[in-house]
What we know:
The chain has about 425 residues and is α+β, with helices and mostly antiparallel strands. Helices cover about 25% and strands about 25% of the residues.
Amino acid sequence: SLAWNEKGYLNIWTRIINDCDSGRCAFNLFPKKDFFSLPIAHGEGRFVIPEDLLEILVKNQQTVFRYCDGQGRILPEYPVNPNGAVYNLAGLCNNQGNVLALMPHPERTPAGRVIFDSMKLYLDGDRRFTCVKPMSSDAVAGPAVRPQDAGILRDYPRGADSVEMLVDLIITDNEAQTLEAALNGMGIEAKVRRWTHWEIFTEDRSPDFMDSLVKSGELLNTNKEIVHIDDPSCLKGEAFRILVRDKDDFTGESRKQTLSGRLGFDSVRDVKKGVLWEIRCGAEDWEKILKSGVLFNPYSQEAYRYGSQKPGTQTGNQLSPAAKSSFCAKDYKKIIFENLHNVITGTDFRDLGQKKIGKVRDCYISEDKIVLISTDRQSAFDRILASIPFKGQVLNQVSAWWFRKTKHIIPNYLLDVPDPNVVVG
């Protein structure tokens, strides 16, 4: 299965080597140990496999392509192994040899033609591979019990000396919508909400310190996200909630190093990042969701039961002093004054289509779409009087909220809200 890269999103060149006998599959009908350069462009392409299953795949010569250096040496460290894949895996074939899962992109360079030429040879030949005996169904089944199959979910083990941040996206959450559509496609009627979850281990929990952490920009984008610090009251209503974390939390480690090392937050000892899924559905459907494996990958992630799983009960942990601070109430007047010169007075995106300017909105019209950008211009009597911070954002988000809430009554033009100030229709 696939997990997030150790180094985040990568758009670089790498090398892969044919590490199995020539002709093991339809895609390596060229000499063993041949290697060549291919580009990769992915954020979630790190192969993770249980050791017992990897041993079977290696023995069966299904680990066809592996990352290597310019001399064909298979070295585990970056950048030879660009994403931290187990066994330097870049490509795996199925037992029959007619299906290949490959992370680099052979179609983007002439060097990758060797794989397509191999496919042609396979299609022109007898299309049979006899070098490996078929594996039994027991051999390829993997672990007998997966965590989600057995319903094994531990309670979220929050640290006693940590601060919890829940970050809510205030524009369209494509990940939550995609999961909701997938569940609906499985015949499960559910409503999905996603929170970014941070656990900060620090001795300093003062409001000023928390405020500085948020303003650092390392944990959220305040232009399109809202943070709740040690405030479980933001989780309202009946829902099942599950916290998912990567076993190799490279993002959390990176944020910790940046905060404590480069930005001077010396009291930050550790940072852990996760995703909190909030799903409103029936108990039977919740069991189906857990068994489906759609919420987390047990080989690369850990999942925890977050708060009470009994609908109708309060979720979360006890409030810390930070939750009672003035930060949670937010000094909006202060924020507005700090952004008096951070306003959108106009836009110029020539590639979006024909531009038309209204009193407040800049409109870009193309053949099949319209992009409306709500500026911060304040008008009266057909005159622009001033620009007010966040005015366009508030106008745009209120409008989008009502469009979503009324779409079941009458269809509307709204397709997406890619930015707090922008709608696409």
